[in-house]
Amino acid sequence: MMGKADYYTILGVSRDADAEELKRAYRQQALKHHPDRNPGDKEAEEKFKASAEAYEILRDPNKRQLYDQYGHAGLQDTQFGGFRDFNDIFSNFGDIFGDFFGFGRRGRAESRARQGEDLHYQLDISFTDAIFGKETTIEILKSEACGTCRGSGVKPGSKKRTCTFCQGQGTVSHIEGFFRINRTCPQCYGQGSVITDPCPGCRGTGQQKHKKQVNLKIPPGVDNDTRMRLRGEGEAGQHGGPAGDLFIDLRVESHPLFRREGTNLHYRTALSFVEATLGTEIEIPTLTGATKLQIPPGTQPGAVFRLYGEGAPSLRGNGRGHIVVELDMKTPTALTPAQEELLRQFLQAADRPASSSSKKKKSKLHQAKPIH
């Protein structure tokens, strides 16, 4: 939802606007940009859709609270992804139009095919599975067409009856000012027909909730907040419309040794000052087993080495990242007398004197402090 305009700005209201102010502002926007008044005007169409979406969110106290606190990102788990087209607005929002000024559903929009709602699922996976990928199965609860009535909502052997109030049109009309106003039929709610003998399996809804096992193939290289989309695995569509989609949000567990940044894995270890001075060979863990890393003599604290191609694979197929080895220096704190003597001998053999006590003239002693 990045890049969307602010909903309050779209409606032209303050952030503390009450329900009546929101309703009044939406009425003005919808009337101004309604497609019947602006035929062929693409900009007006977009503004009409945007104002409908803004009002849909702000009129709902729960959605409005999420939006006020987190912005558009807070609405990702509300299963509202905006309106797809005018028919979607009219079929979902038709009663609101009728409440305002009578711009209801045009014709029998409600009875047209409509795509089902999207579903969202959060899946926790291990660090290793995120790197190498995994095939797994998840269980979701979704609506599907009723097996008894095949989605019609009518008891087998019966039929829907034409609505007598609107004569099957789904709308009732009247003249208001310069406009011929279509209101949604209050008896059939835009269907054009009514169910007098509902299906006992779904109670006339045409849908039933079922648990379903969904096979999921997680590609190598996914990371936290990776979102996968399975088309057609969402809620069943209405009136023969396609099913919605299933969105899988991945949450990757942390690793005890590695810290991930993109495709690179960071590993931190420590050397003694003797090892750093003389050079050594250390063992570094990788995701496929341990490997040896040669540390050259004179290595300084904070040195960084890379094990090329041992990191995470790129989701875009651009190879693999690296393991970045970060070295800390260990300073011994509990030396034996023999070790201390060896260090004094090392210090005496260095270019500078072992201690200031060897000088004839005492110099001022300064406390050394680390520089950050």
Number of strands: 15
- Give the helix/strand class: alpha+beta
Give the CATH architecture of the largest domain: Sandwich
The H-level CATH homologous superfamily of the largest domain, spelled out, is Urease metallochaperone UreE, N-terminal domain
Over the alpha carbons, how many angstroms does the gyration radius reach?
34 Å
List low-confidence stretches.
98-111, 354-372
List the helices and strands and how they pair.
Elements: H1 7-11, H2 19-33, H3 42-58, H4 61-70, H5 86-100, E1 119-125, H6 127-132, E2 134-145, E3 161-162, E4 171-176, E5 179-184, E6 193-194, E7 207-218, E8 227-230, E9 246-252, E10 259-261, E11 264-272, H7 273-278, E12 280-284, E13 291-295, E14 304-307, E15 323-330, H8 337-349
Parallel strand pairs: 1-9, 11-15
Antiparallel strand pairs: 2-7, 3-6, 4-5, 8-9, 10-11, 12-13, 14-15
Question: What can you tell me about this protein's structure?
Answer:
The protein has 372 residues and is an alpha+beta fold. The chain has 3 domains: 1-82, Helix Hairpins; 113-160 and 195-251, Urease metallochaperone UreE, N-terminal domain (HSP40/DNAj peptide-binding domain), CATH 2.60.260.20; 259-351, Sandwich (HSP40/DNAj peptide-binding domain). It has 8 helices and 15 strands. It has helices spanning 7-11, 19-33, 42-58, 61-70, 86-100, 127-132, 273-278, 337-349; strands spanning 119-125, 134-145, 161-162, 171-176, 179-184, 193-194, 207-218, 227-230, 246-252, 259-261, 264-272, 280-284, 291-295, 304-307, 323-330. Helix 2 packs antiparallel against helix 3 (42-58). It starts with 6 loop residues before the first helix and ends in a 23-residue tail after the last helix. Residues 98-111 and 354-372 have low confidence and may be disordered.
